[in-house]
Amino acid sequence: MDQRFGFIHYLYQKQTIKWICLFGIASAVLMTVHVQYSQPPIIRSFSFILSGAKPYDLKDSYSAFNGSVVTDQSTQNASSLTNLSTVDNEKPDMESLSVLSILQMNELLRKSHSARNSVPSHLLSRVDQQLLEAKSRILNANVTHNDMDLYAPIYRNISMFKRSYEIMEQMLKVYIYKDGEKPIFHDWILEGIYACEGWFLKLMEANKQFVTHDPNEAHLFYIPFSSRLLQQTLYVRHSHSRDNLIQFMKNHTEMLMTKYPFWNRTNGSDHFLAACHDWAPAETRGRLLNTIRALCNADIQTGFQIGKDVSLPTTYVQSATNPLKTVGGAPPSNRPTLAFFAGFMHGNVRPVLLSHWGNDTDMKIFSRLPHVKGNQNYIDYMKTSKFCICARGFAVHSPRVVESLFYNCVPVIISDNYVPPFFDVLNWESFAVFILEKEIPDLKRMLLSISHEKYVEMYERVKRVQEHFFWHSEPVKYDLFHMILHSVWYNRVFTSGF
Ligand SMILES: *[C@@H]1O[C@H](CO)[C@@H](O)[C@H](O)[C@H]1NC(C)=O
Ligand SMILES: *[C@@H]1O[C@H](CO)[C@@H](O)[C@H](O)[C@H]1NC(C)=O
Ligand SMILES: *[C@@H]1O[C@H](CO)[C@@H](O)[C@H](O)[C@H]1NC(C)=O
Ligand SMILES: *[C@@H]1O[C@H](CO)[C@@H](O)[C@H](O)[C@H]1NC(C)=O
Ligand SMILES: *[C@@H]1O[C@H](CO)[C@@H](O)[C@H](O)[C@H]1NC(C)=O
Ligand SMILES: *[C@@H]1O[C@H](CO)[C@@H](O)[C@H](O)[C@H]1NC(C)=O
Ligand SMILES: *[C@@H]1O[C@H](CO)[C@@H](O)[C@H](O)[C@H]1NC(C)=O
Ligand SMILES: *[C@@H]1O[C@H](CO)[C@@H](O)[C@H](O)[C@H]1NC(C)=O
Ligand SMILES: *[C@@H]1O[C@H](CO)[C@@H](O)[C@H](O)[C@H]1NC(C)=O
């Protein structure tokens, strides 16, 4: 189906009003913030959003096409990467991109979650009524200031998070579709930079608390596919086309729609998936655009919808048996390097970073570090730098964000339109720095303007937020598995009843 048609089709769906509102806000924002590129092609911005897919985001991949597990670590040997610039002929249309600041993203979230229900309550099913009740209980949560387990400053609203999490534990039921064959469905890869989707899938299928075999009591329907295995299984090397992958997901979705009554009840908006590969935003367009998509490549420019979709962290797991091998780092007083970055010169942002700051003596900005065993030099820099730069590569997401948190290094995110993980509940600005790509020339001044007290405060918060990014083979409260499930639940609660 033509993507443009797909979008219009989508407009006629149940959630239309809310998304039209969001679109309106986004458009207004586009109008006002569109200044940094020379041409002002607002029209092209719209057509970009309308069409959803631009062939250029074929490029937004740092993966090898032939399936060898490739990481974006600084010390990786580039010869294992397919030359990505040959994937399609079209140059990225930089002029058509517009940038949302983190404040504008906050505003989108607020608007999205404060939209009113439009369905009269007598038309709601029992599970819908439960969701509405949950929403009301979350909005009227008892105000918590101090909590035994949770550290208030790192959340948008600790009272709401705590209440929502408790209700999830009491109430949430997830139905997992059994359809679909391995390896694309019901299978996982637990190592590498796309490991997040694999861990989630494996732990979800093994879960006893939330999984139900009775679809009638389900608040959420999970489509258990792996975007990484889809790419490994179906991408035809050198074909420069992922149309067959998109077609495959379309087929599968249409099968679910016709075989079961569940999809049509909400047009898919109580369905969800978790996908970490860079191509997942494209593979989950069309019908799947209605679902709650938990995506690592959480890029507003490729259709990520704040308030509905969930930003999945990109967790680089080196050893599936010991995913937390190295956590921790030097205290603030023992971090001599102001800021650190190392990595391939993927994309347009990193070369700019290097050309401005490659020779700076306070900041260590490298293209690649020489390869040493276990990436120890890279890890040592992260453990002894105050700030760690997470600059986008081909795609907006990077394993550096979670790595920074693990090594107690305050992340500096330079990746326009990237929605950081669990944006819906975490107060990212309290423990991370957001710098627009166009502000790179001002990077050092901006970092130096952060006082020592403020820095130490952010450092402490980084340490407190870590636990939400840990994988455990047996999930524990507030760990990464539960955070992903919670964010899907939370967004379902706030988007139900339309
Ligand atoms: C679901 O979406 C279709 C279009 O895709 C629309 O015709 C239909 O009315 C929607 N169903 C509900 C219940 O809103
Ligand atoms: C990268 O790999 C190629 C082929 O395996 C090898 O010839 C080259 O020396 C390697 N480069 C580095 C920097 O390790
Ligand atoms: C993957 O590609 C690399 C580099 O092109 C090549 O060395 C390797 O043999 C390929 N592996 C497979 C399984 O095709
Ligand atoms: C990658 O492909 C582009 C376009 O075909 C070419 O200009 C460039 O030299 C290639 N780079 C490498 C490292 O092969
Ligand atoms: C957090 O949410 C609760 C419940 O909606 C509300 O009463 C409280 O004012 C909020 N706190 C902050 C700091 O926004
Ligand atoms: C909220 O506060 C009220 C009054 O202090 C108390 O009665 C109630 O049990 C509290 N609810 C929860 C869920 O803590
Ligand atoms: C989609 O399904 C049709 C009919 O079931 C089949 O002919 C086609 O090969 C499938 N396409 C893909 C990409 O799986
Ligand atoms: C759901 O709606 C689609 C049309 O949008 C239709 O093809 C399909 O048969 C319906 N599913 C069921 C189970 O009725
Ligand atoms: C950095 O230093 C190298 C070697 O002295 C020089 O060639 C390069 O132009 C310098 N770059 C910048 C941005 O000053």
UniProtKB/TrEMBL annotation:
Membrane topology reported for the UniProt record: Single-pass type II membrane protein
This protein's record includes keyword S-adenosyl-L-methionine: no
GO cellular component: Golgi membrane
Residues covered by the Exostosin GT47 domain: 170-447
GO MF terms, alphabetically ordered: xylogalacturonan beta-1,3-xylosyltransferase activity
Cellular compartments annotated: Golgi apparatus membrane
Keywords annotated in UniProt: Glycosyltransferase, Golgi apparatus, Membrane, Signal-anchor, Transferase, Transmembrane, Transmembrane helix
Primary residence: Golgi
InterPro entries, per the entry: Exostosin, Exostosin_GT47
UniProt record similarity statement: Belongs to the glycosyltransferase 47 family.
Protein name as it appears in the record: Xylogalacturonan beta-1,3-xylosyltransferase
